[in-house]
User: What shape does this take?
Amino acid sequence: MENFDNFDRSLEHHFNNMGEKLIPKQSQSLAYYVDISKSLQSLITFGVKLHKIEKTHPETLDMLTKLRVKEDLRPKLVFLHNELGIKPDQFADIITKCPQYLNPENEIYKTEEIVEYFTSKKFTKEQITDIVLRLPTILCYDVIKIDATLGFLQNFQVSTKQLRFQADQVREMVMRSPSLLTQSPSALHVNGQFLERSFGLRFDEIKRMITTYPRILLLNTEDLELKYMFMIRELDFNNDEVIKFSLIFNASLRLMEHRHGFLKSLGRAQYKTDQVGYLSPIEMFWCNEMEFMTKLGFHNRQPLDNYIKTL
Assistant: This one.
């Protein structure tokens, strides 16, 4: 392991300044733990949101309270820094979302195996770090399950035909949507079948859809169907356009309905690229309300609010 003197000095600085930190006391139990636990106090100095952990992972509080700072906490943070280049100011988000990473039973060699596995699959160090920052729970995931999911994606099958993604395509899909890694092959398969049966996409169209917008394999199928029907019936999309503008599946159906109706009221609901007055569906439906209004030439959202009141 590389020299970590700078980190140790940083850690010592955190400890020396503990008294200056405001400890968030979200509950009596949490306040009690913080008062008696050096490990919890040290996590707070790094910005870990203990009150969020108390709500999302209450079962880990006892473990976090009993951590030994130098024996249990330090080595895990050293690993993140030395092996993945993660900075101390990035620790908080990782630990808040995945406190199980600090569990002494989750030994470092298991995390090393995950990093080595991704490296063997030709993910770069920067890509692995990006995955960890966006999906911290991957640090506690089983390599065998990750391998099963990547293998399933590469040999993705609908009906009786394999889509046969290339390895670089699978890596790109994972980088676009790291949460794919924690899904079971059966769950991914259900959404793939849905694209074929409910959307009526051909094999080549399904492949393009998944490559363009891999997150579609994670979304609720009922919600997908409602949005798809809206795109076909109201926005007058064909399947090529559904695939091209698939990012708008991220938007809520209500938002799309309101904005499309507002654009119609202005006579500006034009989403065909070869038509005068074309508006990009992604720019219209995948942005916040002020960005939406600004793109239409308005200085505030009042016209949209006035339209919504008429519904």
